[in-house]
Specification:
nine-stranded mixed β-sheet; 15 strands; about 40% helix
Length: about 475
């Protein structure tokens, strides 16, 4: 398949910095205390309502859609933590609803789950006037979002993200809906734009350290990409407060994260050229995430991947040692954690890097892998419109060894793998693997080598209806 045609005005090295400096997220502070954001995906625009402890006001906005009922989609944890408060408010405001509860992990994000959601919807009397409302993280948003796109060839979708990462990085700023199949992630899906998004950062209160760091990891990446307000945000948050932010801090952080997505998705709605920049840090980070026995949150994995990218940038003469130090400080402020199995992971991670989804945008070059690289905080390396540079495979391998060694020792240094010295005592991962979802609050969680094994062995789908 031929690469997409790219507008000529974007094909220059100064376009991104100019866009980042000039971008202003369209928003309005409403009398009821909500902030109304206009989110752009290409030519399509939808409202994102954002607030802290503003559930009654958010449901009032939902009520304006005049739905015959609200079809609520939960996972096991959001049903426990979010449903009581949400459903009480729906009842108070006279909005009928039906609920469907899916499994918690990626193993439940399947066509079987999708089929059960569709069956629950149809047997429960759902119609074209019904609004689909996923309540949860990315797995819930994707799976129920796909169902919304399929039912009657598309019913209204109102996303209600309850995880920090999902609020600013996916549900409030994406039209991509999908499930997994045959071992491939997000392989069956479609594009379906939300009608609106409702975000109450009070729902984040049920999240533990890992979920908060997951959201902050993607914002750390944005700081490296764009600098400016995105860099300033991290200086005010992770640098001085770590991951423990207030509800008001989280409103600002969510707003800033949505702003980054609005800026580039307006120009590249299907993420085929300039919006590929959001993949920065993902090449090594995602490969580590997918390596058997490795456990980390997505955002922490991205931040760890940024360390590999900066290692490569300096080795290739793209980034100076001083600029790398400033770049890597962003990751230090986040202090990402990862559980690494006790074996040599180099070849496994390298294999996944060499099958990364950014292949195909630029011509294949034997012995090289495409990487998005940073020049300094707020300035990306620009070899072409896709921001993809050819990196020799031996250097990729060296970067993987460096990152794995650095994270095993849990110290921060810009030395080569053989020279790595930590500035603090090495510390192993202390938390239980199951805490990578909602701390210790998981049903029947068991210590295991992988996240999927560490979660409940209950059936992946449960559903109930309430009219």
């Amino acid at each position: 398949m031929a690469p997409p045609t790219v507008p000529a005005d974007m094909d220059n090295k100064d376009f991104l910095r100019k866009t980042a400096n000039e971008h202003v997220l369209e928003h309005e502070d409403l009398p009821n205390g909500l902030r109304k954001i206009s989110m752009h995906i290409g030519e399509q625009v939808f409202p994102v309502y954002l607030g802290y402890q503003k559930l009654p006001e958010l449901i009032s906005e939902l009520k304006k859609l005049d739905a015959d009922k609200i079809f609520l989609g939960y996972d096991e944890m959001t049903y426990k933590h979010c449903a009581p408060k949400l459903e009480a408010e729906l009842t108070k405001q006279g909005l009928p609803f039906q609920r469907c509860i899916m499994g918690l992990t990626e193993s439940a994000k399947t066509t079987k789950t999708l089929d059960m959601i569709l069956e629950t919807f149809l047997k429960g009397g759902g119609s074209r006037k019904t609004v689909m409302m996923p309540v949860g993280g990315g797995i819930v948003s994707n799976t129920f979002g796909l169902a919304a796109g399929l039912l009657f060839r598309g019913i209204r979708l109102v996303q209600c993200p309850t995880s920090f990462l999902n609020a600013h990085d996916a549900a409030a700023s994406s039209q991509k809906q999908a499930v997994n199949h045959s071992g491939y992630k997000n392989i069956i899906g479609l594009y379906h734009v939300p009608t609106m998004v409702l975000v109450d950062t009070d729902f984040y209160s049920s999240l533990g350290m890992v979920q908060m760091k997951a959201g902050l990891g993607e914002l750390t990446k944005n700081a490296a990409l764009f600098g400016g307000v995105h860099y300033d945000l991290m200086k005010k948050t992770t640098k001085v407060k770590g991951w423990k932010l207030t509800g008001e801090d989280l409103v600002e952080a969510t707003f800033t994260g949505i702003g980054a997505k609005d800026m580039l998705l307006k120009l590249d709605p299907k993420e085929k050229h300039i919006a590929l920049l959001f993949e920065y840090g993902h090449t090594i980070g995602h490969a580590l995430e997918l390596t058997e026995g490795t456990i980390t949150s997505h955002g922490e994995g991205v931040a760890i991947g940024m360390l590999g990218a900066s290692y490569i940038s300096e080795k290739m003469g793209i980034m100076s040692p001083e600029d790398r130090k400033e770049h890597d400080a962003l990751v230090e402020w986040l202090d990402p954690e990862i559980y690494l199995p006790d074996r040599d992971l180099t070849e496994e991670v390298l294999d996944k890097v060499l099958h990364d989804n950014k292949r195909g945008y630029i011509p294949e070059k034997e012995g090289h892998a495409p990487f998005i690289l940073n020049k300094r905080v707020g300035e990306m390396h620009y070899p072409n419109i896709y921001y993809l540079e050819y990196v020799p495979v031996p250097l990729v391998k060296e970067a993987i060894v460096y990152v794995v060694d650095r994270m095993r020792k849990r110290g921060y240094s810009s030395a080569t793998p053989s020279e790595t010295k930590t500035r603090r005592a090495a510390k192993p991962l202390k938390r239980h693997p199951s805490s990578f979802v909602y701390d210790a609050d998981l049903p029947d969680a068991k210590v295991a080598k992988t996240l999927e094994q560490g979660i409940t062995k209950d059936k992946s789908i449960k559903f109930e209806a309430k009219n």
